[in-house]
Amino acid sequence: MKISARNQLKGTIVEITKGATTAHVRLDVGGTIVTSAITNAAVEELKLAVGQQAYAVVKASDVMIAID
Q: CA 2, CA 8: separation in Å to the nearest integer?
């Protein structure tokens, strides 16, 4: 598969928590946890499992910076 998004973070799935319709998938990317909210159907379709290698693909029109 090829994708145009340049922000691809490869990691390992460490947790999948399913809710009524949405699942939270936690991915360990070099010691940093990235969490994605996707549908339960997507988890099943992709056959996601803890310990599996996966990519967090980030596509955003804006990235903001904030300070205290």
A: 11
Is 32 a residue whose pLDDT tops 80? yes
The most distant pair of C-alpha atoms in the chain lies apart, rounded to whole Å, by: 42
Taken in order of first residue, the domains within the chain and their CATH numbers are: 7-55 (2.40.50.100)
Residue 58: closest CA among 35, 24, 32: 35
41: its two tokens: 């159907």
Amino acid at position 65, single letter: I
pTM above 0.90, yes or no: no
Burial 19-35 (b: 16+ CB within 10 A, else e): eeeebebbbeeeeeeee
